[in-house]
Design a protein that fits this description.
2 helices; two-stranded antiparallel sheet; globular; alpha+beta; about 120 residues
Length: about 120
Amino acid sequence: MTETMFGNCACPYDGDYETPDFYNERWVKKARKEHKCTECFRTIKKGDSYQYGCGAICGDIYEAHICKICYAIAEDFFPHCGRALGHLWDDLWNQFSENGEDNSWLEVPRDDETL
């Protein structure tokens, strides 16, 4: 396990997922149009910075737009492991549930409500 600021890495996919055929990511400094965050589904507004990723699994192409908040949370909890895009909040929920901890704070609205 990897040591993080929150203890050991909470990697949910310890080899139990399809390895992408390819995956590339980059930071977009300024969005030219609005996008939905792949993780929380909130709007990434025009002018916001975000992480863009694209890849393929078993020949199926996908892309992701990840807001700065979700990216930071993913990096803190899963810093050295692969994870399935679009499952951040479910993975955190499962991690805290398995440990018997209170996970009520993970009730994240999947819309444009503010944090």
